[in-house]
């Protein structure tokens, strides 16, 4: 089994389209104003957004995108007007992360974990 797609809610797909294209995702299905789908720049995963009348309550959605050149990616995004909660920080769980929010308040974590993403030192059953 392979994760194919994640779908998130949005109040305004047009703002979301602009934002996620700036992040580097490629628009492949445009059924705005109700639905859009993007292809991630690496691999075959897709990311979609559907129009809602009201966003879910609580902490909302957390979306992680990995980039091997995190610091450069953050600088590039800042140069096109993307604002970050914080720039790249080395975390205790061995990932380097930068955080920002999309136009609907969903938390985006751009990170680089390398081998530690799947094989952290505390992995359960590391031989699997």
UniProtKB/TrEMBL annotation:
CDD domains: VOC (cd06587)
Domain VOC residue range list: 2-113
Gene3D superfamilies assigned to the protein according to its UniProt record, in alphabetical order: 2,3-Dihydroxybiphenyl 1,2-Dioxygenase, domain 1
PROSITE patterns to which the protein is assigned, alphabetical: VOC
Signal peptide, first to last residue: none
Domain of life: Bacteria
Name of the protein: VOC family protein
Organism: Splendidivirga corallicola
């Amino acid at each position: 089994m392979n994760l194919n797609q994640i779908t998130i809610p949005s109040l305004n797909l047009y703002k979301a389209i602009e934002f996620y294209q700036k992040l580097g995702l490629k628009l492949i299905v445009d059924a705005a104003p109700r639905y859009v789908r993007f292809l991630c720049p690496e691999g075959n995963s897709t990311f979609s957004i559907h129009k809602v009348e009201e966003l879910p309550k609580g902490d909302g959605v957390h979306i992680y995108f990995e980039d091997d050149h995190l610091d450069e990616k953050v600088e590039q995004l800042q140069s096109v007007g993307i604002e970050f909660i914080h720039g790249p920080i080395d975390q205790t769980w061995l990932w380097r992360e930068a955080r920002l929010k999309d136009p609907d308040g969903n938390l985006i974590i751009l990170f680089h974990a390398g081998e530690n993403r799947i094989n952290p030192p505390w992995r359960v059953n590391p031989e699997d």
